[in-house]
Amino acid sequence: MSENKTEFSSRIGFLLVSLGMAFGAGNIWRFPRVCAANDGGAFLVAFLVATIVWAVPLLMIEMIMGKRTKLGTNGAFRNFAGKKNTWMGIWIGFCSMAIMFYYSVVTGWAIKYFTLGASGGLKAGVDTKLLWENFLATPSQTILFHVIAAGIAGWIIYKGVTKGLEVANKIIVPSIVILLLVVMVWSLSKPAAWQGMEYLFRPSLAGLLKPDTWLFAFTQAAWSVGAGWGLMLTYANYMGDDHDIGANSFVIAFADAGSSLLAAMAVLPLIFAISPSVDAANAAMASNNTGLTFIYLAAFFPTIPGGNLFGALFFFALAISALASLLSMVELTCKNFEDVGFTRKKAAIVSTIILILFGIPSALSYDFFDSQDLVWGVGLLISGIMFAYVAWRAGLDNIRDMINEDSWIHVGKWFNYCVMLFPVIFITVFGWWLWQGASWSSNWWAFEWYSPITMITQWVGLGIITLLLNNWIANKIKAPYQEEFLKKRHKGGKTE
Fold it and tell me: To the nearest whole number, what is the mean pLDDT of the chain?
């Protein structure tokens, strides 16, 4: 396959790259704890529903927009929603870029802890809480590993779609699965490990009646699968004409859910297997994401035979899964630069430099990092509702017909019903997160790290900036404005 054609070499190549995007650090870093903290089996049911109702339809919308336009978020929104709505594509692109800035920092953390595990730096008796705090308080270290992560991602994107992205994910995705399987089998061989499986799969019908179970499930689905970020839209640019949209969306969504479950089956038994007591395991489960990964697990690995090896394997799996997701964000940024006239290599270099520079604040300040994680993580819900708007504007039946033209499975009316539910889901989950922010901050109206006013100000500020840039960006995009997307309407759509 010639790089000039800018297509993945095969459907398998596209799926592996897409799975790499979905198999992010959130699967290992976040899913096990959130699942365990929300009634285990009940959360799994809610997460499955959220994946079908929210993630799968969004993946389909993104794929059809990317495949038909062969443009990034800015151009795809211009062509599907009209020039005056280009700002939505800019907003979504920036939201994913903002996540990219601190996601590179997380990737750097995982690389750092992999090197510690591989070099024997995680020794029995080491105060891992102090080790973690000292690492965060050492800018030369946090910035160094952020730069390493950004540099690796930038180099792979610089190599191109087939020679960079596709080749890297053909190695990364199988490696993640194999490493998690190895850790899972090893942990399940330990005496107390099955308590972790009970913790994960314990039946709890009452849990299904708890609002928090569903709210966390939909939040996790938005994060984990990567739907609504614009990432799948970007990758769909490089799909072949014979690449299926309907089936691929289901494969990607359920493979991601499976990888999340595999991570939980590796991590939770591991916690119980290497904890000195059940109370210690429960304390680890009650910790936050960072504590569970970089403090508790780092402390427990060296206490058992072979722990250094399996600790290194675990953090290596975390590092490469984070890298796979980081690649998709850098590619999104690169593609938007290409659409306004940059060459591929120049766009990759500029994207990497931007990533390094704007990632430094999160590398320097954990409070800034955590705040940005909240702001733009919740911001993904806004991105999702923008994709739903595009589908509604073009006509849900029209979008579904386009999807079915490129699918060997028939996508029925359930797609329409799910998208029509998006506003209800958005208002519920988005409102809940704002309420959470108010509960975390005693002065919710003050500009504090996690206050709602801080979040709202950044969203509104970005909205104003993107509206001001709307016409300039819409006219800078080199590809023609394809009005056929606006002419073919069903009764539910508006005319331009």
Answer: 84
The more confidently predicted of residues 496 and 308 is 308
Quote the distance between the C-alpha of residue 330 and its chain's center. 13
| In the chain, domain spans | 7-487
CA atoms in the 13 A half-sphere facing the CB of 33: 20
Q: How many CA atoms lie within 13 A of 159 on its CB side?
A: 14
Q: How far is CA 81 from CA 110, 379, 401, 406, in A?
A: 39, 20, 17, 21
Q: Is 186 a residue whose pLDDT tops 70? A: yes
Confidence (pLDDT) at 357: 97
What radius of gyration do the chain's Cα atoms show? Answer: 22
**Chain segment 358-369, per-residue pLDDT in tens:** 999 999 999 999
**Rounded CA gap, 119 and 281, in Å?**
26
**Domain spanning 7-487 has what CATH number?**
1.20.1740.10
> What is the DSSP code string of 38-55?
TTTHHHHHHHHHHIIIII
| Cβ(486)–Cβ(496) below 8 Å | yes
Handedness of CA 104, 109, 110, 116 (dihedral sign): positive
Distances in Å between the Cα of 236 and the Cα atoms of 55, 68, 251, 402 are 16, 9, 15, 14
DSSP-derived secondary structure for 68-108: HH---HHHHHHHHH-GGGHHHHHHHHHHHHHHHHHHHHHHH
- Cβ 360 vs Cβ 146: under 8 Å: yes
Give me the pLDDT at residue 172, please. 76
Q: What is the mean pLDDT of residues 105-110?
A: 94
**HSE-up of residue 107 (Cα within 13 Å, Cβ side):** 27
Tell me the pLDDT tens digit for each residue of 228-241: 899 889 988 888 77
How far apart CA 146 and CA 355 sit, in angstroms, is 9
CB 452 within 8 A of CB 444: yes
Backbone angles phi, psi at 239, to 5 degrees: -75, 145
Those residues with Cβ within 8 angstroms of residue 365's Cβ, 6 or more apart along the chain or in another chain? none
- d(Cα 418, Cα 424) in Å, to the nearest integer? 10
pLDDT at 112 over 60: yes
**CA 29 to CA 223: how far, in whole Å?**
12
> At a CB cut-off of 8 Å and minimum separation 6, what does 348 contact?
154, 157, 158, 330, 334
